[in-house]
Amino acid sequence: MTDLATVRQLDAADPLAAFRARFVLPDGQTYLDGNSLGALPRATAARLADTVTREWGQGLIGSWNAAGWIGAPQRIGAKIARLIGAAPTEVIAADSTSVNLFKLLAAACAAQPDRRVIVTEQGNFPTDLYVAQGVAAYLPGVEVRAVPRAQIAAAIDADVAVVMLTHVHYKTGAMYDMPAVTRMAQAQGALMLWDLSHSAGAVALDLAAANADLAVGCGYKYLNGGPGAPAFLFVAEHHQASLRSPLTGWMGHAAPFDFDDAYEAAPGMDRFLCGTPPILGMAALEIGIDLFLEADRTALFAKSRALCSLFVELVEERCAGLGLTLASPRDPQARGSHISLAHRDAYPVMQALIAHGVTGDFRAPDILRFGFTPLYVGYEDVWRAVEILRDVLTSKSWDSDTYRRRAAVT
To answer: Where does pyridoxal 5'-phosphate bind (predicted)?
Structure first.
């Protein structure tokens, strides 16, 4: 049985422990929701202030060149590429995950007009499903084939243009075997599109080794880019010339400052740009990524698995008989960096936890979700969270109208 002294020893030996001081974390709060919104890096505020006061305030429009604003999508994309096992010319930072999904799904379908099906998983993150449905509504003949996880392989046939799956499931944390599923899709002639929103910065990724075709991901979870941070997209180099973005904005033009009337797609990843880059968001995202790149990623991903395993162990030891069921895979190799527990009254339980200093989140209909971001979550945080969870459940302090009242964001 793991005790408090043991977890403190683990923290003392943690090679990543010094990173915690480089984030803004409120006193008395155990933050286990970095899988939804990453914590604020301490350097971000100063970087944003400099971008606003010096680059914008003094440099004005000249900062597009002098401060490197115009190259931000490519520069930041190349840094993200190092985190996901891609070449620097295969990733670009732009737009939102939803917009990037639309670009790649539409491009994949348009490039294979004899294949009209998008395969995805029932219960996938809603924006993935909604965007796929939107693509099908606007491209004649395209349909979405959403099937249970166990039926994905059987759903891929000669009619499938693209298979779109979330690598780490947003609700359960279950993780696909990326190389195996990619091979399965490609064997049927389909392109494979991975959503890395709960993977990038949370688990080891090697898109090149997996022979991945396409991918998208967000910048505001484990990459700590801030609320609504720019997202990113990946296109394997051998696909770049044959895929055309459906959003043909000026930044995706081969020569945007020639101001031609006719659109000509830029070479490489630049063709997947659309509008003007959001420079303030890019500046914040770059700080989060630079901080992440400093960490030993082998140690980081090992700590991620250890934190999750400790949480499961302590919950099953100390919260047995209190109505909780593990909703995530038990095998550490088969899950991401968050753990989900099912409880009949999950929403008020989570609200009570937050009121008592442990921030996770709720996912309908009955999931308590806890994210373990190894750059700033420690082993004693896990211990404290489980102690408070046990107290909330045994005292039934969650059973009040205050905690049952639903907020707009859960």
So the answer is: 97-98, 125-128, 166, 195, 198, 220, 250, 276
